[in-house]
Specification:
This protein has 1460 residues and is mostly beta strands. Helices cover 11% and strands 41% of the residues. The chain is built from 22 helices and 89 strands. It is globular and about 110 Å long.
Length: 1460
Amino acid sequence: MQCYTELTPPTAVTHSLSLPFISAQSNNLVVARASVLQIFTTKSVSAELDKAQNAQLQSSRSTEHYDSRVNDDDGLEASFLGGDSVLVRSDRSSYTKLILVAEFTLSGTITGLARIKSKKTASGGEALLLAFKDAKLGMVEWDPEKHSINTTSIHYYEQEDLQGAPWAAPLGHYVNFLAADPGSRCAALKFGARSLAIIQFKAAEEDIDMDDWDEELDGSRPAKEASTTTLTNGTSSNEETPYSSSFVLRLPNLDSNLLHPVHLAFLHEYREPSFGILSSTAAPSLVLGRKDQLTYMVFTLDIQAEASTPILSVANLPQDLFRVIALPAPVGGALLVGINELIHIDQSGKSHGVGVNQFAKQATSFSLVDQSDLELRLEGCEIEVLSAENGECLMVLNDGRLAVITFKIDGRIVSGFSLRLIAPENGGAVIPAGVTTLSNLNRTCIFTGSEYGDSLVVGWTRKQSQSGRKRSRLLDPSLELDIDDEDMEDLEDDDDLYGDDDAPSKQQPRSTIAPGSKPGELLFRVHDRLVSIAPIRDFALGQANSLSEAEQKNHAGVSSELSFVAACGRGNAGSVAIINREIQPRVIGHFEFPEARGFWTIAAQKPIPKSLQSDKGATSMGAEYETSAQYDRFMIVSKVDLDTYETSDVYALTGAGFEALTGTEFEPAAGFTIEAGTMGNHMRIIQVLKTAVHCYDGDFGLTQILPMLDEETGAEPRVDSASISDHYLLLVRDDASIFITKIDKNLELEELEKGDSALSSTKWATGCLYEDKTGMFAKTQSDKGAGAGENIMMFLLSKTGALHVYALPDISKPVYVAEGLPFVPAVLSANYAARRGTAKDTIKEILVADLGDMTSSHPYLIARHENDDVTIYEPFRTPSTTEQDLSATLHFQKLPNPVLADDLLEPADDDIDEVQKALPMRRCENVAGYKTVFLPGNSPSFILKSSKTLPKVIGLHGNGVRGMASFHTEGCERGFIYADYKGIARVSQVPIRNTTYADIGMPLRKISLGIDVHSISYHPPSGTFVAGCDTLEPFELPKEDDYHKEWLQEKDLVFKPMVERGVIKLINPSNWTVIDSIQLEPCETIMCVETLNLEVSESTNERKHLITVGTAVSRGEDLPIRGRVLVYDVVTVIPEPGRPETNKKLKLVANEDIPRGAVTALSEIGTQGLMLVAQGQKCMVRGLKEDGTLLPVAFMDMSCYVTTVRELKGTGLCLMADAVKGVWFTGYTEEPYRMVLFGKSATRLEILTVDFLPDGNELLIVACDSDAGIHILQFDPDHPKSLQGHLLLHRTTFSAGAHPPTRSMLLPRTLPTGSDYLAQQPLNGTPGTPEGEHSAAAAPATILLTSPTGVLATLSPLSEPQYRRLSFLAGQLLSSLPHHAGLNPKAYRAPATSGVVGRFPPAVDAGVGRNIVDGVLLARWNELAAGRRAEIAGRVGFAGVDEVRDVLREVLGTSGLAYL
């Protein structure tokens, strides 16, 4: 069988909601990405700081000039004031940034979010109601004790008796939506055709709750009388649940007109929960030729009586309304959104409408204000309230343009409203494509979540017009103040609406400041973004880094053979995403350095000469002694030469390299350096050797030597590991003792006396020092940071595995002890205790370090196991009112980390040296703008985290690493230096231009093309990519038509429909620019782009890689669709001056018109260099002739629309997938040319993509349908049910859940040499098969799948023992791990049993109770504690936990795609 594994998380944002979730005062944003729930908080960063960071990151990227006016509101005016004023002017605004608090993967597809105010939540914040596909609801709240979400209630409405008619479609096919009462008294879920579930919540009884009781004045508060009756079995009837029972209403029972509900929303300002619903008595299919069928009704619910009362009804509304939006006071009422108009209906039923294009008049007789000059299309638009006081709403159209709806309010009555578009120069085009959700973050900031591109945080300001500002100055001419324009703007900025929630004085809306004046123009700009690769429309594998020869030498060994290149995004958000498995460093210099074992770079201050050390001199020192501390000045290298002689050397760093430093008091022969760094505010350089500590000044003048000598015993313990902070030095020695020194005012090291404390008696394994800047480990958490040197925490791991935390300088007793670290529990706390005899892991190293980026960072505890795996713990404090003891409030939560390290190398006999002690993890303060930790060794990795992600372990491409250090010089800013096992040292940088790492857990580079891209293919001979794109242009009716005279009347139409027109773009990956563009005919769209190896000459049989494009020409529904096959070659030409990358162009080789039907799919076929073309309802085999025509040689009739054709390379076996009629398995022969149908699946399958999956000597067919089902089919003519093979056999079906695969590709699979799968392969062969014949068929393969939510997944075959053990393991994990929101992963992966798929199976059922193994569940293996892992491994039949690791590493993740 197979294993389905997801490689990247979903990135498309489907829903969002702003609410106080973590606590009553917090401001959180909850983001749903199909099946992942993320909780963010916001942080304000000054624009100055943000620009400084961007500039710092850009200084090493490119020489682009960063103009501050790009993001500056007053940039235009400042540019007229001359160059200097631009530099002087500071931007005093602030940016709102998102910071991730927690992330949860759910086993369900989220279809709605709602906020519920509840007095009973553990955190004091509000609860969150989640709606899932198939009518499930889950209510979750934040649990501060567990630092996670807690499910408080589950409701599901999937029962058969609620489904209604037997012919009703399955639940997932209806639009199910969730709406919640603004007063949190109830919520409603509309599901099925016309069912409404009402969930009641217990409102706090405000009348009788004595919130204003004052204990001092009124005496002690009277105890509440509990109305509890104890039942016979001793359980209380008054169970404390936040909800009451729910009930289901049939909408036609409320009112006979509610036969076809369109949308509903709960309204504001009603005493009882009331909802407005839009519905029709006629089915949507019957509306042609009719007008104004819709009715809007408002119902008030009486929850106790489970009844409702209609209080308002407005009939004869336009047919195209699709949404109800409830508006808060002072506007109130509801806004109904249609395709051509907006209608507002207030509480009394009075209506106002605006038509936004000229079709509004034709579509409805409803009275509308005419704003048809706007020419808007409102399909797919989103609306959110901008400012309730001003009556302003923001509308984002489906192409990303912004418009503002302004309501005119007279007292409490709405007298009308109007729309205006935001001009592009005011930020009206900051959003490139349509959005799916809008959420207000604060008074001046909104989150725009999108499924079609990056999700943005957009902020706005109001700009007073110039005349208004001049007028306000002329009001009082007596004050002749000398204020110029720029100072006025500074004053403006100060009281602009940028204010945070913390500054209430700034929150006055402008309308109250200047009554009667129109609020100023709105200016929009982007504050932050969540990177997205959704939807993945197509992908190719190719060489994405075409380097010059000099660069190729530099990058040898650290760049991958191929990259995954995807066409993603929609509309103007269309982009190319380049993804690799591991970080490929940008190498600045590389050289042989075989003796290097460790690097330490040092930014020390120069010692101040005696002559300058007067008081006056110290302050006016000059730049030389100050700025020199910014760049690293020296590097200490520990070496082992060929005779295993250990030395250390010091080098001075230059622009991009280093040179040996001589003439100092540094002693190379003193031995091997264990650790080096600076102390005393960069004034002292510390070098820790095995036998002593050497202390130098900033120019390597020796100031102190601290020998490792125990004066009482005379023993000389060696130093094993060391940790340096600015004030303290910690040494762990080989006799398991520790040595702590402090630096005094004279910059001398002195030992801290341990005395008789437990410190001297305990055996210590490892430890580290950490400067606690956030106050996470302080006794009392306060916002004010501690003074320098007072917040140093010492973390020590004893030989028994206990974690001890000391607050230096007090080493008499630890402030925190956790015994349970070797058991790696999900939550580590001081009182965690495991059962006796529980298995535990060996932890060889711990490190506490800040991880994050420039926006935010957080401390993490990183534990490294003996097998090089890492476990990352996030510390958190539980709120406590009484106990302030750290041991009661500090807990560590284990974060998910599915990455398994490679096995440690078994050293050969000749290099005994490599067996030396493993290198310690390296904390890096700033590598490419990240605060990160580097893991050296056999699987070198960075632990990277951005402010919007969890920490991710991402490998460094290349060999194992011996030593590494950050490297910050003029020629290599924020880079690093490392030496690998081959003895090559590299000075390099982590590429950051357009590149993110932690967002999807892999290096992702995203290049925006600003055009809709939907196909991409790689052309190997030229090393270029060809993309099929679309632009929109107005549709023109054919002029020369003799039959349709009435078409001439429509030629003056102003508001024409938009149609796609194809563009073929040639992209050079050297700098990802478009170097050639070919526009196709009007109305011609590109359906597919493939690179095929075709025969170009019949006489010489020469083959060539050519670009083949299939197109469709659609000129409206009254003319038949035609198609074309275009064949291009990529030729070399003379490049444009100054642009050497433009040396390639597309050259047309063949152009074949297909009179009937579009060309929807292409593939190579056979062994003679022919192509298979899916054209309309036929599949034809065609050959390229030398005169540029395509000669058909064989064909097969197809059903409706061919979505995919695939050939198993060189065999003639073909698969054809139909959009409605299933899969056809055919064969093609060359002597004579003909196509034969072997077998087909059921004819009721909507197949999006299909592929072969060879597994040993079996050939399986993998078909993915529109319901996210992955079907495994097989051709077996010997099976009795298959009618001699005419019907394909159905082996099993697996649901991909929220991520339906739409594109697939069969790829070779890389496996380790000792793989279980390879060992099994010869046994699968039939007895008597010659060895040579069999091995050709058994090349391991895997299928790569992509989905519209941005998920990459693989489907890999398993050997029989692997399948048995892994499916058993998945079952054990299912019962051992917690599942959020009460969802069941097993049900989530089960195929759809209702509807078409349930009634008509995909093929003849021949399954033997087997299923695909869920790799998403297996990837959570590391979440288990060590004891549980050992227990399950034994139970499932593995030899031990290590064997489980080996199998999982082979099956999960990207290990099977090592060439990426």
